[in-house]
Amino acid sequence: MHQSMIWGVAISAAQTESAHDSYGKGPSIWDEFCNKKPFRFFGKSKVKNSHHLKDSADFYHQYKTDIDHIKYIGFKHFRFSIAWSRVMPDGVNINPEGVEFYKSLIDYCLEQDITPWITLYHWDLPAALEKKGGWTNRDILTYFNDYAMFCVRSFPQVNHWVILNEPSVFLGAGYLFGIHAPGRKSFDAFLKATHHAMLCIGMTYRSIKKEFPQHSVGSSFSMTQIDPHSNKSRDIKAARIADLLINRFFFEPLLGHGYPTAEVKRMEAIKDCMLPGDEVLLPTPLDFIGIQTYTREVFKYHPLNPFLKIKHIPAHKRTIDLTAMNWEIHAKSIYANIMKIEAYQLNIPIIVTENGVAFEDEVVLGRVNDFKRIHYFQTHINEVIKAKNEGANVQGYFAWSLIDNFEWAEGYQPRFGLIYVDFITKKRILKESAYWFRRHLNSSLYA
Ligand code: GAL
To answer: Is position 166 annotated as part of the catalytic site?
Structure first.
């Protein structure tokens, strides 16, 4: 039944590689964000516990061990990202040592019969480009296109490409709320950056397909299920507005629907960021749509909120079933999101490019008994299969994440890995969830 289903596991460069300033790598906005203190040299870091991505799992040196583990567990697909500032330290000029690293990594995957899926951008913009305005500067389209084409030409044996990882998160958290790199807090910057990111997906897709029509090129989108607090029509409307702002705004333009601004007039300002002809460049016939679901959020009507009249009800006020990110565990969301994309009748495959859960795992007598994570994966995968059985064109599932990693502004405390990493010794221990995947990937259900 599910023989065509792709089973994989994912990581990203900034969260795992370490070696952040060696082998010719230039600084990225996340290196700078980790170093940032509010008053130049003092004050609290913007990353919890002042954790720094330089102390992550050292994937740069241990990638063979990690790929051996992927093979042992039984995943046949591996999604990882290229650090732009490793192959182009200033975003433009090439660092041959960085290119060599990814060549060796790709070759090792292929030798082990593991198919690489490469994310071109998982949030670590070269710092030199941020100095030129980053995503708010329209020139990013040329910089990104040159970088993307360089990668695709340098690694022609890679067939699966993911252009951007979760635009809504790097744009919202990075440019509007300032809680992720580059730490900007400006509505104007956010709108400009958003429009450029949307155009970037379309332009990169077309450039790659022109030269490599056989490649499969998609992009990944954060999809959070949004529910109303009650069945009252004003709460339903509040949830609809939140859905527009959190989800739809960042993929509907690509699907040919334009920016969904009808119910939130303030967002219409994005039209000021558009040049004549942009509306034609936005719709993009991606080869697959990557969706990433972790949780759901609940919203209600709130008259005192001046612009939107909505209020977020945080998970800890609604449930005790929380993860180390304080997110609600809600398996039905992944089914709902697949069906939501299905309803657009795109007729392209849906790939779950990330789904997973963080807990504060502990090693006890050499083992990590993460039974809550097994339950999470089991229930979420069941919902994916349910959607597939009901006719949804979902063709793949990637677990997040292979190894414990640097969870952005949350630092190292939330552990998402199937493999535990001791961040001091860099030693790996397969968690029970890794053994669970091994059993299940070998069983007939997932064959
Ligand atoms: C996604 C992101 C990953 C990872 C995950 C868990 O938004 O792509 O890098 O951090 O969330 O929070």
So the answer is: yes
Residue 340 CA to residue 92 CA, distance in Å, equals 39
C-alpha pair distances (Å), 206 with each of 250, 285, 330, 347: 19, 9, 36, 19
> What are the structure tokens assigned to 354, written together?
């990330």
Helix axis angle, 140-154 relative to 187-211, nearest 10°? 30
Close Cβ partners of 24 (under 8 Å, ≥ 6 residues apart): 86, 89, 95, 96, 97, 98
> What CATH number has the domain spanning 6-223+245-295+327-441?
3.20.20.80
Cα 401 to ligand 1 centroid, rounded to whole Å: 9
User: For each successive 10 residues of the chain (447 residues), what is the average pLDDT?
Assistant: 80 98 98 84 85 98 98 98 99 98 98 98 98 98 99 98 98 98 98 98 98 98 98 98 98 98 95 97 98 98 92 94 96 98 96 97 98 98 97 98 98 98 98 97 68
Around ligand 1, the residues with Cβ closer than 6 Å are: 12, 15, 165-166, 169, 222, 292, 354, 400, 407-408, 416
Nearest ligand 1 atom to the CA of 222 is 7
Active site annotation includes 354: yes
Q: How far is the CA of 291 from the centre of ligand 1 (A)?
A: 12
Active-site residue, selected from the candidate residues 17, 328, 354, 407? 354
Q: Is 147 helix (H, G, I), strand (E, B) or coil?
A: helix
For the purposes of burial, counting CB atoms within 10 Å of the CB of 103, is it exposed (0-12), middle (13-18) or buried (19 or more)? middle
Identify the active-site residue in 166, 297, 383, 407. 166
